[in-house]
Structure formats: C-alpha cells, structure tokens
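User: structure tokens for this one?
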Amino acid sequence: MNAAKPMRSRIIAQILHWSRLCLWPRGRYAWWRRSGQWLLLSIILVAVSAWFMPPDTGVLKQEGRIIYDRHGHVLSLFLNHQQQWAFATSPQQVSPVMRQMLIAIEDRNFAWDPGIDPFAIIRAVGQMIVAGHVVSGASTLTMQVTRMLHPAPRTLPVKIVEALQAISLYEHYSKTAVLGMWLSLAPEGGNLQGIEAAAHAWFNQSPRTLGPAQAAFLVMLVRNPNQLNPLIHPRAALATRNQILREARRQGIISRAALERALATPLPHRLYPMPLLSPQAVSTLPSGTHSTLDASMDRPIARIAHHALQKMAPSESMAIMVVSLKTKGIRAIYSGDWGNLQRDGFMDMTRAIRSPGSALKPFLYGLGFEAGLIRPSTNVADFPSNFGAYEPNDYNDQYMGVVTATTALRRSLNVPAVDLMAAYGPLRFAAHLRAAGAPLLLPYGANPALPLALGGAGISMRRLLALYAGLADGGVVERLHLIAGQHRPARRLLSPYAAEEVTAILHRPFPFGGPGGIAWKTGTSAGNRDDWAIGYNHRYAAAVWIGQPNGAALPGDTALAAIPILAQVFSILPGQPITIHPETHPLTLQRQPMGTVLEIASPPPGGTLTIGEPVSIRIIGGNRPFHFLLDGRPLPSNPALRSIDWTPSVAGFYHLSVLDADGQLVKRVLHAVAPIHAANLEWN
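Assistant:
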C-alpha cells in the first residue's frame, strides 16, 4: 500500500506537467503555440458543450395533414392544431432553383460550415465596430432554423445560445435534414409556415414547380413577413424580390433571360384558397397518405355537384362517386356540401345507410337468371297483386300487363320484381349479397322479406357501387378502397353469363341525352327519400345520390333528378363504351337457343283464364320433341312446335305439365273462371 501512493503521486504530477506544457508552452514561438492550443481547446469545449444542447424539434411534429392523389399531387390540406398551415417539406419536394437560390442568397457556405460561419461573424463584428451599428448579419441557414424552432428577442445571450444550438444541429443532423427543417418552418406570412403551404397559398401551385420569380419571393418573405407582405407593402416587396433575383444572377443561379422574365413577373395580389377536394372522405386519413383519387377527375366532379346543388332546395344534399373497374379504387368522390350546416355538409353521405330503392333489382334478376328461374325473354305479369299482407304497386300506379323480364327490369316494374323475390327467396338473396361483401341493414330483429326487391333495407353508396362495379366486372365483387396499394378479397356474386345478360338489359341511351355505351339503373326509395342513378362502362362505374341527410322526403317530384347528373359525370370520364354483341341481346320467343332451361312463357303465373276463350300455351328453352299434359292427360299437339292452343271448358284449377326430350319437366297451375266472374275481377 505504501509503494502505491508514491506511484500515484508521480502519475498525477506527470499529467499536470504535460498539461502545463500543452496549455502554457515555453520557449521560442511560445505565444503562437499557446494561442493555437487555446483556440483548439476552445473549439473542442464548444463542440462538446453544443453536443449536449440540441434544440427541441418538437415543433416540427405540429404539422397539418396533407393528402395526395394517385399521381402524387396534393389533393387536400388541413390546418394543424395551432390553426397553422404547416407541412413537413423535404428538399426533394421543392424545385432545384428554389434550393439553389436559398443557399446562394442566405448561406453560400452552407455545404461546409459547422452550423455557424466564423468568417461571417468576424466580418459582421468588424463592420459593426467601424460603422457603429449593424451593417450585415452573420446568420447561417442552420442558425435561422434554431430561431424558427424557438423564436426569442434578438439579444446577445439569445444569439450565443442560437449559435451553440446551430452547432448542435450540425452535429446531430445531416445538411439535407437541416435544409428540410428550414423549408418546413419558414414563416411566409400570417399562419403560413413552410414552403409547401406558401406555394399553394401565394401561387396556387406545387413547390416542385416554383420558378425563379416565385422562389425569390418566398426567400424574400421569410426575412420580414410583415414589412415585406406584397398585399400591404408592395413596393418594398418588389424591390427586395428584384434585389434577390439580381444577386442570384450575379452568382450564376439563373440566366440573364430568366432574370428578365422574373423581373417582369408581377407580385401575387391575393392568397389562393388551399386545396380541399373530397374533404369528408379524406379528413380521417393519416397525413402523407397517397389516395386512389385523381385530382384531375375529382375537381370537375365537384363542380358538377356544386352547379346542381344551386338548383336544389337548401336542405337537399348530393353524393357522387366514380370507381375504376380495373383496380376497384375510388377515383373521384363528392360526399356533400362541405361546411354547409343546412345540408349537414360535414357528413360523408357515401357512408350513410340509405334505402337503395329499385337499385338492387339488377342483382335480383341476375341471381334469378343464374338459378334458372327466369330468362331475359321470359314473360312476366305486371298486374295488381298481393303477397299475403304485402301489396306492392308500381311507381305511377299504372300496370303493363304481360311483359318480358327485360322490359320489367328496364321499366323497373315492382310486381314482377316482388314475384321473382318470392320465387328466389329473400333470405337467399340477402345471404348472397352478404357473402359478396355488401350486407343489407335491416331493422333490429327483422328478417329479410319480400320488400327487399324494392329497397326495403339499408345500404351505403360505397357498397352499392361496389356491387355495380362487380356487375360490370363479370360478376366479381370487391370492396372499394381509397388508399393506394390496398387490395381487398374478391367474391363472385354472379356468373359471367348472368352479369352479361343484366348488362345487356341495362345498356340503353340516357333519357335526357348524354354519352352512349353506358349501362345504368335508377332507384327511388319509398316516400321519395332517396334518388339514385348508377351506371358503368368498360372502364368506370359511377353513382349519384340525391336526398336529405335527415331522411325527410325530397320536395316535389324529383325521382329522375339524378339521371342527368349521372350523364354529366360520364361525359367527362374517358370513354370506353359498352358494346353489346348480338349473342348477348335479350332472347325472344322467335330465336330461342336449344339446350337451355325449359320454361312456360305463357300464360303467366297467377293469371286468370276465362271459360270458352282460347288460350295460347307457349314454352321457351328445352329440346324437341315436347309433350303437353293437362291434369296428367296428354293434349293434342305437334311435338315439333313450342305452342298449342287450348280452351278451358269448366271453371276451376288445371295442372299443366310440359316435358321435353331431355326429361326437363315444368309445371304451372292455371285458374279458369266464368266470364262474369272474370269481368268482375278485371273491374276490381
């Protein structure tokens, strides 16, 4: 132990001796060596001290939300919690001339300086001593960032702290990151913070497209946003901007021709509104989301909606959606009049649960085609009918009698649709839609019933349009998405054949004019509360809804108000019209392919025959020869023909059966009544 103490003392003494020689050398040129060593030690101490003094960059997180469209263009901007337009901006998000001009004008040594510029500090101090006042500043871009992070009065202690924090930024962050902080924090007047917000507000353009005049203006405005505001001090702003442009030319940033064009460019004379497309739909998306929307399509869709709303009652609202059939991504969406309290403009009406009216009929018919219950050419009855306690009626209370299924779907006749729903089964129909990803909303405790055929359930526009997009895509339904890159599971609802048959029926000209090659369907809910128009071509599907958000009935007769708007929507969409080939046209009794499902075309089911009046019994489908039986007894007929004539002789019920060569058997119950009774039935 005693030997260790002298050894420790000698080591400490040696360290002190070498420290004295390093910090206080003697001999020739000792003063110079001493100065250099103290300078080096000071630099080390400053660098070490600065390392532990990084500025708080939490303000960078206080940004608003920015949403992009599918091409990377800004779709919508939202304020941050401090009610500022502030968005993170990287150097890659601004034009090259903006980056070059900023560095050349504000900090030409930015690439190598350690956060502060010692030579600029020496120059500024010397000029101040000679002139007696501040002649030029020595602030670097990094020091400006520290000031933007924590604004404070311009006192000497504050400047010293800013210098240390600038060195700390240099130590902790790359030059690219520091430049991005400047571009994100630059005060550009009022509640504009950063180049992204400033470019949209002052020039209505992206920072990627800023030219020399715009770049010089934004660099100028940061120096004094109040005194150089062109709306308040246009002369001072113009002189300062032009001075920056000439300096940029002197340093070779811009050409002489570019300088002349920039000097001739007037200052902005107003602030533009911030981009705000589809706000209800994108307001919940995370900042920086790349959506599936297309701003070039979304913008004209919004104009169509605004123009139409001007002609409507103050409480009416509207929703429009366009979806790509290839990706099932939403290309345009108008969810309501944003900010209009009378129209509940903050609600996203594309998500609202509304009655689809007759808009579900194409899927009912398609499932009926697939199940073999009906064909496009099948005759159906449109007469006043009741289904137990349920008595559906047509929209105008006018019935068309015996028509084909094609006509029934095109005219949106209610009785044939309910009759088909009864044959197919409401539970089965609802289950198919649920399996395809479009469940119907029913009142609590209620089960699917016959009114589903006429819209007696709830569904959102997004799910309804997904069904139509699936109908246009060969019967495969996929949930629509709004975020780029999403993929949802696809489910088959209809066979390609059934989907093609329905498309052939829905394909027809718009009643009030518009582009051709569109398959479309309307829907009106009970009580005239919802007015729908939905259509598709080979590239897009679109839907229009008109109604009152509170569920009240629409004023007046507006059952077809959505159709002209749908035609306008398709008039601005790239055209890929639907072409119906001859083989997909609705089948007729005269041209019925062989080998199909055997059906009785007439007399229609549920009809009443009159004693003594001939009845034409006709069949479609099946293969010859055919055998007709009545109550189990053969009727005289030609096996090669598809029709026979028969006259009921007595009142009552008859059981008709038809058998074809393949063994297909179809049956129908016929009801014959006396002539007087038949007349009473017709009168009633």
